[in-house]
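Subject: Sanity check before I submit

Could someone independently write out the structure tokens for this chain? I want to compare against mine line by line before I put it in a report. The sequence has 791 residues.
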Amino acid sequence: MANLSDPCYNHTVLNDPWRSINNTDYIASKPYKCDTSVSWRGWYRLFINNMSAHIPDTCVATGHCGTSAPLWLHGGHPTVMDGVVTRDFCGHWSDYCCYFRSFPIKVKACPDNYYVYELVTPAVYCTGYCADTGSINTSPTTVTPVTIATAYPSVDPCYNYTVLDNPWRANSSQISSSYKCDTSVSWSGWYRLFIQSQNAKVSDTCVAQYSCGTQFPLWIRGGHPTVTDGVVTRDVCGRSGSNCCLYGSSPIKVKACPGNYYVYELSQKCFQNLFDQIENITNQVLSVTTVTDILTQAFNTSVDILESSSSSSSSSSSSSSSSSVSPAELASYGNRILKTSEKLISTLVKPTDTSDNVSFTLAVVEVEVFMVGPLVSLDQIPRLTTTKSSVDIDLIGIAKTNSKRSAAVAFMSYNTMENLLKPDFFNTSNDTIKTMMSTVISATLPKTTNTTLTKPVNFTLKHIREFDPNGSLSCVYWNISEWIVDGCSVLETNSSYTVCSCVHLSTFALIMQTSRPPESDSKLDLLNLVCVIVGLVFFSLALLTFALCQWSPGVNNVARINLCLSLLLAHLLFLLTQQFLSLIRPHQVLCAVISGVLHFLFLSGFVWMFIEAVLLFIRVKNLSQISSKKREVLSSGFLCVIGYTVALVVVAVSVGLLPEGYGSEYCWIKMDKGFIWSFLGPVCVILTLNMILFINIIISLNSTLKNLNAEISQMKQTKIMVFKTLAQFVILGCSWILGFFTNGRKELEILFLILNSQQGTFIFLVYCVLNDEVRQQFRKFFRCLCCVKQH
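---
Independent answer below. Compare away.
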């Protein structure tokens, strides 16, 4: 009587003809079979069309057995006398028989010449157990390591190797935000390992994940050889999670050398198979948790590759093996990420009679998936929305064109994809600066038979950078190696967002083109620096003069003092900000605060220019009554309230309406949304009023001087009067009008720069140097200074 506890007599029959090693048409017979979706339990005996079969124990070609990566038994089958043994499993991929490693299983040889297997869920996605009715290789229970003796190289690698001394390769487990990846290294020849000048070797036992400075540490399988073994070949495993050999890399050659050290002929391949595994996932449904885990792993791997390449090229510029990532490589990485992401997201689509949706958010990507079935009651699906984008698509209409009356749409917004698919890949005939104005988005119709659109799809893309009104926006889609505009157009745009309309689905973005600014003129920059510094010096001298000198009772210097103070602080802060812009710019809050303070200081300066113009106009009007008793028309306190309150109110209202309007790339007011008019508006009003007052002052002054008696007229020197008149044009800020007419003309730029940086100089000359009372006090001060030195 049979023992029911013996798996030879207590097993499940597995009779799937597609598992045959002779089934080679896996590409044409999609969907592929994937044993990761099977709930395995207990022991199994294999049949093919009712003929007894066994799992092959030799390498099976990729694409056989109805799956993408066929699994075969590594180590041979046991004999009946061996009882239950444990065997490893390999998956063939990329011309390497053991590219993937799956979980080991138990195997038992049974009387009557058949085998039973305690099958488990494979470790690698879209792999499957094969079945063969041919002959069987019976071997001892113990699996011998793969040891392939090869001929010695023409030069003994024990004495001709490259030293590899990277302390981060030490076997210490530590989770990090930045991992190393050897895919970025161009390996060539044999290597000997050191850690801080101490002899080291590649680990030949399982290494914990995140060890050795990388996310998936590699170790060699089968142990190290002895000196007498010569050059041997060892498999390479990569640890992930609880599986020590989830990933298999290309085998490497190893040699033991006299002196108790080893050399290795290292291979280029590392974790590119991660993307291959993902791309070969087919119509199986995965959980959101599984998809997010794999997506995170894929994005991290890609980032590590790029960062390692960039860092190695910058730190080892003299090394021929280190080079920066080329545009072609960036595009290739980008295509790989897009392809694997879309494939993974497609596994979230599951059959539904009505409607269903799935969404999740990661640091690098946001995903929205919506599915409709034949019994859906919606007239249209809701807008699919992420933080910085949204899409409107007629999924109901698409479903009606499909035989099963069902369809699904996947919408993805990538937060960091522009680092790979750069805006410079948008090739245009004109030489412009390209700026990515939105996140990169993708829209697909996974598991939908008929993907023809019934109407154009509209994407709403929020601007992620400051919009330049002079820029040109283009809705583009990614075509293998470049951004192109075919089939996409701008439907609507403003300073905050743009609506793109496209007649097909793909990967999209919004790119802005702006004219290249003229090259920096070092001479003009030097002139600007000198003029501003000179202006600051004269502002300071004017303030000291107003504060220390004695003035006639009828002279009111309140407007001039506050004008000098406002412009002194404004020019000084602006100068310091531009000199240290690279340090300030990363601190967005500080940059915004500085731009707000500059807004206030410059506005208060213009208000004080207006007040000075009003006071000057009143004095000229009263010039004919020069002998009459002077009286203060407006009190100093009232003038101070007007001078600073107006500017403060404008800034406060601006902050309340649009606080994000402060902090441009130059730490000034942003140009988008018309926010610059919070400064230009009041300035234009003040300049217009000052020009009107200045013209009236000239007319009134000319008329008054004609009516004065000849004695007084002769006292006024014509040249001084002309100079003071022209100087008042600058002091009252009228020369700022030139800023509206420069348009890149170098002569006007220089004139504008000189005049408006020297307001302090003209104030000092007109009200201090050319004032008789002040000159007498200066003379008295210098005489006293000389007397002190003599004594």
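---
OP: Matches mine. For the report I'm noting this point. The mean pLDDT is 79.
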